[in-house]
Design goal:
The protein has helices at residues 28-37, 57-65, 92-111, 134-151, 175-185, 196-201, 206-215, 242-255, 272-293, 295-304, 307-316; strands at 4-8, 15-16, 21-22, 43-45, 47-48, 68-69, 72-74, 116-119, 125-126, 156-160, 169-170, 190-195, 219-224, 260-263. The model has no long low-confidence stretch (mean pLDDT 97). Helix 7 (206-215) runs parallel beside helix 8 (242-255). It has 319 residues and is of the alpha/beta class. Helix content is 44%, strand content 15%.
Length: 319
């Protein structure tokens, strides 16, 4: 299948961990120009307000670039005011600002033709027992998302769950809990961004979670990367979990997913622009590997449920 590849704009500029900085810092305009040079790029995922600006100045830059937009990513975690939470802040004023951010991003997504925002509430959760009121946090999060979703029911609001980071426990840590949360909100335009790396660190099977989200009608967006299940290392897809990645791609075919695919890939060695280009080519090659094995053969392997036979055929396909 052909993937609609989107670049997370942050992967094209400077980023770092607690110890080092990686890649040169680039302006938003420079990142857009770099994106246009990468083969197989179909669109980008800009961040509000970091890229697009509170005043929306980056919207015109994005339009002028000629690049499509997969979704507007709403950053409600890194600003100082959000250090104690966004959806779940004890301060009602901060919760109101969080909702306002999402509404503004929704409006920009319409202007940019995406009609979707994605948000990862990493600052919402807790670190210690007795640190927060779990009932209030849950209720506040539902209220915030419900209000934001009602702003424009034609715009999808996609929630990217994650088990931990920056909180030891993020309020929406898994696919199951996030789907339950969506049901509690009760809005048809609220769904899930499934990040394969986040599924892995949550101890999940990405293909199974994808199937469950699709069954619920709430699989809105997919991010690919990889890690060792210990931390969210944002590695190249299939660099660690080859078979799980292939299984996920097989299920994307089976369910007929035709939405955007974006990539959280942040190399700490080499050139990350080259890493993004390699990622897109690798996704094509993984797709060719699926073709080589054959969908009917994969379905036979699944139906039989005998790994000693199935993996004999799967490994032979690598030769």
């Amino acid at each position: 299948m052909a993937y609609k590849n989107s670049i997370l704009i942050g992967t094209l500029g400077g980023y770092g961990d607690r110890f080092h900085k990686f890649m040169p810092v680039q302006s938003f305009e420079q990142k857009l120009e770099i994106a246009k040079t990468i083969p197989r790029t179909h669109g980008v995922e800009p961040v509000f307000p970091h890229d697009l600006g509170i005043d929306g100045a980056g919207v015109k830059l994005t339009q002028d670039s000629g690049l499509a937009v997969s979704a507007v990513n709403v950053n409600i975690k890194t600003e100082e005011k959000f250090k104690d939470g966004s959806f779940t802040s004890r301060d009602a004023g901060i919760r109101a600002e969080t909702v306002a951010y999402i509404k503004q991003a929704m409006d920009h997504s319409v202007t940019l033709g995406a009609n979707m925002v994605t948000v990862c509430p990493l600052i919402d959760g807790w670190d210690y027992a007795f640190q927060v009121d779990h009932q209030k946090q849950w209720a506040w999060a539902i209220e915030c998302i419900a209000e934001a979703a009602a702003h424009n029911p034609e715009v999808k609001l996609s929630i990217e769950y994650k088990a931990f980071e920056t909180r030891n426990h993020v309020i929406l840590p898994s696919m199951g809990k996030t789907l339950h949360f969506c049901d509690r909100v009760g809005a048809a335009n609220v769904g899930v961004t499934m990040d394969v790396g986040h599924a892995l660190i949550a101890g999940e099977c990405p293909a199974a979670e994808m199937a469950m989200a699709n069954d619920a009608g709430r699989l809105f967006y997919v991010h690919f990367n990889d890690n060792d299940r210990q931390a969210d290392w944002d590695m190249l897809p299939a660099s660690v979990h080859l078979w799980q990645t292939l299984e996920t791609l097989h299920y994307m075919r089976r369910i007929g997913y035709d939405g955007w695919v974006a990539y959280d890939v942040f190399n700490r060695v080499g050139d990350n622009v080259e890493a993004i280009a390699a990622t897109f080519e690798m996704m094509e090659d993984l797709d060719k590997l699926l073709d080589k094995i054959g969908s009917s053969e994969i379905e036979k392997i699944i139906a039989e449920g005998r790994p000693e036979r199935g993996f004999l055929q799967l490994v032979k396909a690598l030769l």
